[in-house]
Amino acid sequence: MKTLQLDVDADGIALITLDAPDKPMNVVSPQFIDDMIAAIERVASDAAIKGAIITSGKPAFMAGADLKYILGIAGGALTLKQAYAFSQKPSVQMHRRLETCGKPFVAAINGLALGGGYELALACHHRVIVDDPKAVVGLPEVTVGLLPGSGGTQRLARMVGVEKAAALLLDGRQVPPAEALQLGMVDQVVPAADLLGAARAWLLKSPNAVRVWDVKGYRSSNGLLNPTIVKVMSERPAQIAASTRRNYPAPIAILDCLFQGLLLPFDKALQVESKHFARLLCDPVARNLIRTSFVNRGEATKLARRPNDVPKSKVTRVGVLGAGMMGSGIAYVSALAGIDVVLLDSTAEQAEKGKQYSVKLLAKSVERGKQTQAAADAILARIKATTDYQELAGCELVVEAVFEDVGIKADVTKRAEAVLGSSAIFASNTSTLPITKLAEASTRAAQFIGLHFFSPVDRMPLVEVIIGGRTSQETLAKSLDYVAQLRMTPIVVNDSRGFYTSRVFQTFIHEGMRMLEEGIEPARIENAAIAAGFPVGPLALLDEVTIELPWKIVQESEAALGANYVRPCAYDVMRRMLYEIKRPGRRHGGGFYEYPAEAPKRLWSGLSAAFPPARKQPEVAEIRDRLLYIQSLETARCMEEGVVAHPADADVGALLGWGFPAWTGGPLSLIETVGLEKFVAQAERMAAKYGPRFGPSDWLRARAEQGESFYQTAAPRTAAA
Ligand code: NAI
After folding, report:
1. Domains and CATH numbers, the chain
2. Which residues on neighbouring strands pair with residue 594, listed in sequence order?
3. Tell me: the pLDDT tens digits for 399-434?
4. What is the Cα–Cα distance from 169 to 153, expressed in whole angstroms?
5. Rounded-to-integer distance, Cα 121 and Cα 168, Å
6. The one catalytic residue among 95, 126, 276, 452
7. If you measure from the C-alpha of residue 452 to the centroid of ligand 1, how many angstroms do you get, rounded to a whole number?
8. In the annotation, is 452 catalytic?
9. Which residues surround ligand 1 with Cβ inside 6 Å?
10. Which listed site, 293, 383, 459, 476, has its alpha carbon 20 to 30 Å from 594?
C-alpha cells in the first residue's frame, strides 16, 4: 500500500499527498521512505513536471519517526554501520536528492510537522504553512534521546543561525506558525484555504531550485573565529552538563553536529550528522527513553492491562471518603474530569476544608487564564462536601482515603456499602495496607480494589491499581476506565505489603540513611542521587515525608509478620532520628536539614556529630550505583513474586511514581542496560560489602545465566537496517 499519492496537473505541477493507509498520522516508516524516493525520482526524471508540492491528506502534515519501529532497532540491535546506513538512506537518497534534483519542491504544511516531518519540509526549497496554532513545527528528537538524522541539524542551523538552531534542537520545542516565520523556520504563513494556491503560485514563478548552501562560494561560518559559534560552543556544554548530569548523550551530540557540520561542505556535514545519529541510536539511553517514557507509558495510558471482555464503563458520580490531603486531591481531579463528587469526612469542617483545596486550585487556574470563571464555578459545583453517608447513593465508585488504619477503614467501608448500589466499586487509596486484608470488611470483596494515587494528586499522573485476592476482572476493568476518565496513567499490580511503588521506593530512602550511618558524608549522598538523575536526594526526601512515615510502615510490618520480618537497614537511623535526636522532618521543625526562615535549607549542622563522617569516602559513582541497584533488585523481586506481572508496568510506575531517572528507562531497564550478567556480578560484590540485601536471588541469577532479559524488543543483530 502506498503511503502517498502523486498527481500532475495541466501546468506540470506535481501534487504529492502524504496519506498513510489505516493510520491516523503520517509517520516516517521504511515504506514511506521508499515511496518518497520513487516520487522524487519521478519528479526529477519526468520532463513534463516543472516542480512539486508536498502536502498531507490528513489533519497533520507529518509526525516524526514511527517510535515503535525505532524501538525495535534502538539500543544495540543494529551495528554502528547499520545504524549509519539507516540514517543515510532518508538523508541522502530522499532529502538530499529532493534538494539537488534540479526541480523545485515546496512544502505545503497543512498541520503539525515534527521530527522527520519537519525535516522533509526543511529539505524542500520553500515552506508555506497554514495559519493555525495547531500547525506546530519543530525537531523534538532530543526528547527521545536522538537527533534529527536526515539533515535537520544542518539545514536548520544554516537557515536560522546556529544560536537559534541550538536552542530549538536542545529544547525540542514545538513552534507555532507566526513564531516559526519570525525565526525563519518557514517562509510563508497563509490561511488554510490559500495553502495550495500559495504553494502553486511560488512554483509558477519558476523559482531557482538551488539552496544557498549549494551555491559556489557559500560559507556557513567563519569557522572557529565566528563569534556566535564560539559563544554557543563555550556556554552550552556547561549548561547541558549541569542540566543532564551527563546522563543523556543526545544534547552533546547535537552540539557536536552543529560545530563540526558548520565547518564542512553540506554533503560531508550530512555524514557527520549520520555518524552522531548512529551512535545515539545504538546507545541504550535512546531505547530506554523511547520504550518507557513514550511507547509503554502511552500503552499504559491507553489501558493496556484492561480485560477486553468487559464492556466499557463510565463513572458519573464518585464518593471520596476522607477529605484530607489525598481525598481533596482525588475530589479535585474527578470534578475536573466532569464527574460529580461526594466528598465525605467525619466533620462538616473537615469536608469543607477538603473542598476548599479545589477552590484554591481553580482560583489559580483562572488567574493564569487556563480556565474561565464560569468553567471553574461549574467544576466546583460538582463537589458536594458532606458528612452524610446517604449522599453516596448513586455513586458507581467510592475511593476511600481516610486515616491509614485498618479499623477506621473497615468502619467506613461498612457504612458506605450500606448505602451503595449492588454493582458499585469500593477502592482504597491505602499506601501500605494489603488490599485483601482490607476487603475482609466488605460484603462484596470481588468489587473491592486498590487505587493508589500519589501526592499531590493534581500533579502526579500515576495510579497504582492493586488487585486484591478476590478482586474481579470486571472491577479491574471499571476501575481502569475511571483512571482513564481522569486522564491519568495506571499500572496494575498484585497485592503485597507496600504493593510495588512504596515497597521499592522504601529501599531508596533506607539505603540513603544507611549510608549516613556508615559515615558517608550527607552532601555526598545527596549529590550522588542527583547525579544519578533523582529529583532530590534521599535525605531531603525523607525530610518532606517525615521519618514517621517509613517508621510506621516498619512498625506495622513487624506487627503483621512477627519473627519473619527483616528489619530494614536504616532501622537504627530512623529510631535515633525520631526518639533520640528528635528531628523527624521539615514539618516538625527540621530533620536531616535545617530550614532557616531567611535562607535556603541546608544540611543540619549537628548531623556530623550524630553521624560522624568516615575518613575515607567512597566514589560518587559507587554511591550512585548503590542507590540505583538496591531499587532494581527490589523491583526484580517484585517480578519474581508476581507482584508486578509486566516489566513495562514496573518501569513506567518507577518513573511516574517516584521520579526514578528517565535515562535508565526504569529499574528493570537499568538491569538490562548494565547487562544482566554484569548486574548480577556487581550485586554480588555489593552484597559482600554492604550486606545481603544486595544479594541477587536464584531466580535473577538463573535469568542472567540463560540471558533471559526482561524485554524482548531488540531485534537480532543480523537484521538489516
Ligand atoms: P490525611 O490525614 O490528610 O486525611 C485523612 C482524612 O480522613 C482526614 O480529613 C480525616 O478527618 C478523615 N477521616 C478520618 N477518619 C474518618 C472517618 N471515620 N470518616 C470520615 N473521614 C475520616 O491523610 P492522607 O495523607 O490524605 O492519607 C489518606 C490515605 O491515603 C491513607 O490511607 C494514606 O496511607 C493514603 N495515601 C497517602 C499518601 C500521601 O502522600 N499522603 C499517598 C498515597 C496514599
Report:
1. 4-282 (3.90.226.10), 317-498 (3.40.50.720), 502-642+646-706 (1.10.1040.50)
2. 602
3. 999 999 999 999 999 999 999 999 999 999 999 899
4. 7
5. 16
6. 452
7. 12
8. yes
9. 321-327, 345-346, 350, 401-404, 408, 411-412, 429-431, 452-455
10. 459
